[in-house]
Write a structure and sequence with these properties.
By secondary structure, the protein is of the alpha/beta class. It is built from 19 helices and 8 strands. Helix 3 packs across helix 4, helix 16 packs across helix 17 and helix 18 crosses helix 19.
């Protein structure tokens, strides 16, 4: 949204207020006023054609929807309009437009009144996405700027994250995400659910679904959280990670209360939520053997109900899809499986994660690194950074010995016994490796 390109909108509202004032007081409308209105409207529609009302992740608004937003925003950006609204005969001295005022302002014929009501219905685009809020007072409905419209117009950002969340600040693009082609296709399908839901629901009459909700499942370190960052960056919305430790309470009723506070704060806003390692909260509902089991099942059921009616993209991550309650799985719009990277993907990951300006030994063999050990993307990143730090400490280029040392450190993190045989052909880069088995590698033995 370009606030400068919207200036003709407020000028148009000023002229429309003048014409409405003249009409209600019996004054004659001059030809100059009509000529001025015609000239301003040409500029308004030209700016709209160039995307003056465009918002990230939002489909094209109808002309009537843009008229409504202009009428709502104008008194907040123009003192002339604010005064004119309050001074109009027959109005309630409010500077927020009522439905009655909008009908009169644009001289909407009776056959268009239904379209106006359609635009501001509770489950419609303007209200559900936080562009408009409705206040009911003395039998009338007054329209105000919603949180999202206000943020777009005034550059206001949410000072605090939604309750129970922490912001994910890592910025990532598609070039950072190295996953299988099927996984990429599913991520683009999820973006289509976010971007095109208003077309399917409002224009095509499809059923409105919550969220949309996605499940990202796969081994730890395969790129689930990174993919969520890419999705959020693609639509230009902030990403918040839900801290389950703050939401889940041992006290009966507190978990539901915390969930309500979270969802109420983000409903209809330009926000993406990610529930990392959500198995604990979204797991299978079990048999009731004691009172606490019954309340735990009630918490899951309450969550299912809330998230189905939630108009905010929600991403759940899980290391094991089978641990998610089947009743909840049916409510996902998209399920994306993050598999362990294959050799071509591992080679791309190795090349990407070695710092781009780090001195690199000419003998580094990326094909060998990718084929020797099946690490996850996160494991490769850690190994590459380990090698880079050791190279800086030793004052040498990043070489195969240090990269192999980084791979070994990653293998030994799982706490199980490893031998150098687990390194495959990389073992030859660690001096003395053939003589050391069933214990972790000591860097001193490789010196």
């Amino acid at each position: 949204m370009n606030p400068h390109a919207l200036l003709p909108e407020w000028e148009r509202i000023e002229v429309l207020c003048t014409l409405l004032q003249q009409s209600r007081t019996g004054a004659v409308t001059g030809a100059s006023d009509l000529e001025k209105l015609s000239e301003i409207q040409a500029r308004v529609f030209s700016a709209r054609g160039n995307g003056s009302w465009d918002l990230p992740g939002l489909p094209q608004l109808s002309q009537l929807a843009m008229d409504i937003l202009a009428a709502i925003a104008a008194p907040e950006l123009s003192f002339v309009v604010s005064f004119a609204y309050a001074a109009l005969p027959g109005e309630t001295r409010s500077n927020a437009p009522s439905l009655r005022l909008i009908k009169a302002l644009y001289s909407l014929p009776v056959e268009d009144h239904e379209a106006l009501l359609h635009e501001i219905r509770p489950d419609g685009l303007l209200l559900s996405l936080g562009l408009v809020s409705v206040e009911r007072h003395k039998g009338r409905e007054f329209l105000h700027c919603g949180k999202r419209l206000r943020a777009a117009l005034f550059g206001a950002e949410t000072a605090n994250p939604p309750p129970g969340t922490v912001p994910v600040t890592r910025k990532a693009g598609w070039e950072d995400l190295i996953v299988s082609p099927p996984c990429l296709r599913m991520l683009h399908e999820y973006l289509a659910f976010i971007r095109q839901r208003t077309v399917v629901v409002d224009a095509w009459g499809g059923k409105r679904c919550g969220g949309p909700i996605a499940l990202f499942s796969g081994f730890s370190g395969t790129g689930k959280t990174l993919a969520a960052s890419v999705v959020a960056a693609e639509i230009g919305w902030p990403l918040y990670r839900v801290d389950l430790g703050q939401l889940v309470s041992k006290y009966i009723g507190e978990t539901e209360k915390n969930l309500n506070a979270l969802f109420d704060s983000v409903n209809g806003s330009d926000t993406v939520l990610i529930f990392d390692e959500s198995d604990a909260l979204f797991g299978r509902r079990g048999d009731v053997k004691e009172a606490r089991d019954r309340y735990a099942n009630m918490e899951v059921s309450h969550l299912l109900s809330r998230i189905e009616n939630q108009h905010c993209p929600c991403i759940l991550t899980s290391n094991l899809r089978s641990s998610i309650d089947s009743a909840f799985l049916r409510r996902f719009q998209v399920v994306v499986e993050f598999l362990l990277p294959e050799k071509p993907e591992r080679e791309r990951l190795w090349r990407r994660h070695i710092p781009p300006r780090a001195p690199l030994d000419h003998a580094v063999n990326f094909d060998l690194l990718a084929g020797a050990v099946q690490l996850t993307g996160a494991g490769i990143e850690n190994a590459a950074l380990h090698a880079a730090h050791m190279a800086a400490a030793e004052g040498v280029p990043v070489n195969m010995r240090l990269l192999t040392q980084g791979v070994w450190r990653e293998l030994c993190k799982d706490g199980t016994r490893h031998t150098f045989d687990d390194l495959g052909p990389l073992a030859t880069y660690l001096k003395g490796g053939n003589d050391v088995e069933d214990r972790q590698f000591d860097p001193a033995s490789a010196a």
